[in-house]
Amino acid sequence: MIEVFRSVINVISVVAIPLFILVFLGWGFAKKVKVYEVFVEGAKDGFTTAVKIIPYLVAMLFAIGIFRASGAMDFVVAVFSPITNLIGMPADVLPLALLRPLSGSGSMGLMTELMKTHGPDSFTGILASTLYGSSETTFYILAVYFGSVGVYKTRHALPAGLIADLFGALGAVLIVRILMGV
Amino acid sequence: MLNHVWIALILIGIFVAAGRDVYDETQNTYRNNVPITASLEVKKNITDLRNSFQGELVLTASSFNQFYNITSAQSEIHQPVIVSQLPSGIMTFEMAISDATPEFWKEMSKSASEKGKLKGTILSLQNNSEPTKTISFVVERISFVKIKAVTKAAIEYADVAVTISLGLIGVMALWLGIMKVAEAAGLLAVLTRVLTPVTKRLFPDVPSDHPAIGAMIMNIAANMLGLNNAATPLGLKAMEELNKINPKAGTATNAMCTFLVINTSGLTLIPATVIAIRAGLGSADPGIIIGTSIFGAACATTAGLISVKLLQRLPRYKKELEGEND
Predict the structure, then answer these.
(1) How many CB pairs under 8 A join A and B?
(2) What angle do CA B144, B148, B153 make, to 5 degrees?
(3) Measured between CB atoms, which of A65, A168, A171 is closest to B154?
(4) pLDDT, tens digit (0-9, with 9 covering 90-100), for A16-43
(5) Could you write out the DSSP letters of every residue in A45-99?
(6) Measured between alpha carbons, how far is B296 from B26 in angstroms, rounded to an integer?
(7) Which of A3-12, A125-134, B267-276 is the least confident region?
(8) What is the pLDDT of residue B49?
(9) Looking at the predicted structure, is the pLDDT value of residue B326 above 50?
(10) Mutation for A interface: B111, B152, B165, B205, most A CBs within 10 A
């Protein structure tokens, strides 16, 4: 069942982009849109949008860089580990859960490291990959998306995003414990 | 909240780094000025430099661990070094950091005087005529390891931010171009109409035929399929459209926050990267995490949507959206 689902999704993922391009541009042409001109008109914004993001992303990433390089994560882990021990999250997975919203590449490295030490099919390995696979780099998305439209007052987006991350991590621990029977 | 989290990351980072450096200094974690004994095997004389030769420092793991009060060294250490004698008679050495270097020395070399190298001075040398000598040496002074790391990270990450942003230009231009054609052809309007029952609930403030809806649907679809290259440009297009109906420039609207939470919850049907890494590490069933990831992300999305809808009613967040542009 899951195999069928997986192969169907795989095929869709592979053909999606060519299909999008074909349908969108083909439809446009059929509707007598001046496709080339309109495309170029839209594409012009690509540069300005990318450049607009820079200050927001610099602000976000440099703060995260300082935090990570200082080794402050060890202290945060020490503060939270009594709580996560209660719900059955292994101590070495906690840094991954905390790092996931902050840094995409950092948490990917950490996940790979955990799977290397514990084995990809161990409880820790499956939990680590589930945690990584089921969430996103919240701070990065926040900086890029809001940055692109010059929004700096982000209101409740960050608290809601962090609550989502928290419940995502709790859900991951729960489902992996059920799956592995621990 | 972002203000607080942002400044907290920076302040905690700098204070922790400074605190750890002070601790390392008082505890002498890096054994500055403390000599250690090791064997030195002479490998090859460097002929054109009469007073230098290549050698190898040999140290047992246990004596290394004991000296630095650590547990990380596992096997006997064989560290290639270049030894040279200064005119004054003092013998110094230089080790190039390689895979053979123990982790602790690798760490130390990051804040050493020269990048990728660790220098030191030989204090005494016995069995001078034999190829294997017993030496006692000190490694160069290592201090402010964390503060140096923080400085380096601040500058490096600022650079990375620019690289990432500029790297987006190509795909951004491509997808914005395609979306513009789709918009002109009325295709987005068709897509929007089909999903109106859902989008009306999620984004009540956005008119149901607004182009923002179409862009958001495209972005969420691309995210679900794991098409990261397409998802970001489509998401930014959606933000641009949402910003057109933003009454207060520079402030996030409720619709923007909702849209952002859907994105940060990371609902993906196939986490392709993770599966590839698992397969690479020899997992018997790399795809087993598909189901668990979808469950985790569904929990995140549900919790995120509920909290975004509840939080937007709080007076402090409501107030920010009211009033004049500032």
Answers:
(1) 390
(2) 150
(3) A65
(4) 778 888 988 998 999 898 999 999 998 9
(5) HHHHHHHHHHHHHHHHHHHHHHHHHHTTHHHHHHHHHHHHHHTT--TTTHHHHHH
(6) 45
(7) A3-12
(8) 56
(9) no
(10) B165
Given a contact cutoff of 8 angstroms between Cβ atoms, the answer to whether B16 and A68 are in contact is no
Give the list of residues 6+ apart from residue B21 with CB closer than 8 angstroms, or none. Answer: B143, B144, B145, B146, B147
Chain B residues 209-228 with a CB less than 8 Å from chain A = 222, 225-227
How far apart are alpha carbons A41 and A34 in whole angstroms? 11
Give the chain B residue whose CA is nearest to the CA of A41: B177
Query: Of A113, A147, A157, nearest to A132 (Cα)?
Result: A113
What band does B47 get if pLDDT is binned at 50, 70 and 90?
low
Q: At B150, which amino acid appears?
A: V
Q: Is B55 helix (H, G, I), strand (E, B) or coil?
A: strand
- Alpha carbon of A56 to those of B2, B47, B247: distances in Å? 12, 56, 22
Model pLDDT, residue A8 = 76
Task: Name the percent of chain A in helix, strand, coil, to the closest 5.
Answer: 80, 0, 20
Amino acid at B18: A
> Above 70 in pLDDT, residue B48?
no
Interface of B with A in 174-193 (CB under 8 A): 174, 176-187
A138-170 pLDDT tens trace? 999 999 999 999 999 999 999 999 999 999 999
Residue B319, token pair as written in the block:
């107030």
* CA neighbor of B156 nearest in space, from A106, A69, A56, A99: A69
Other beta carbons within 10 Å of B34: 11
Contact A136 B265 (CB under 8 A): yes
CA atoms within 13 A on the CB side of B9: 22
- Rounded (to 5) percent helix, strand, coil in chain B: 55, 15, 30
∠ at Cα A49 (A45, A50), nearest 5°?
120
pLDDT beyond 50 at A7: yes
Question: Tokens 């050493």 sit at which residue?
Answer: B112
Q: Which of A49, A57, A63 faces B9 most closely, judged by CB atoms?
A: A63
* pLDDT of amino acid A63: 92
